[in-house]
Amino acid sequence: MIRLQPKRAAKTFIDSAIVVGIGHPGDDEAVSKRRFYEFTAPADTYIYPERLKRFGKKEHGGAERLMKFIQFELKPENEKHCSVDQQKQALFGHSLSGLFTLWALFTQPKAFQTYLAISPSIWWNDHELYHYADEFLQKTNKQSDVKLFIAVGEHEAFMVNDAKQLFSQLEGDFNCSLYIAPEENHASVVPTTISRAFRFALTR
N or C: which terminal CB in the chain sees fewer CB atoms within 10 Å? Predict the structure, then answer.
């Protein structure tokens, strides 16, 4: 998408950008384990919906460690090799990493200028993210330049309601957008919303 669309920026509204992916090595089980650790915030206890009791066996609470890696190791390394506009950076995440994206916004809003959360796992730990949002709103300046894009697939059931509730909590306080992708589900929503998300991030 970034290779193709900037060639017609006048029509696509997407400029050139550097895309940096953070991956997890190993098989599906190893990747799942790392995701549940790195994308969740530390907490005294973890509460799981009945349908997700199996996740209780995984380790959690590594979000602060991941954020330090991004800020103090990954960003400086990128800047050694690429010409980075430090005033135009975005964090993108889907599902649990969408949860991490929102947590990063609410706890370290100056780390990036734009936050793109696709199908974020707002349900995590009994919707603790709503409390993080409240604390963020108490501190944030309504004239802040920070931007947030939330997308969720129409067929994602309770995740649609979660996204709507969070959006209503944030709407009006800063530049926040919610997009519900027609006919999409948790697996299909990323490729169908990625252009819209990047257009939101790369235009002012």
Answer: C
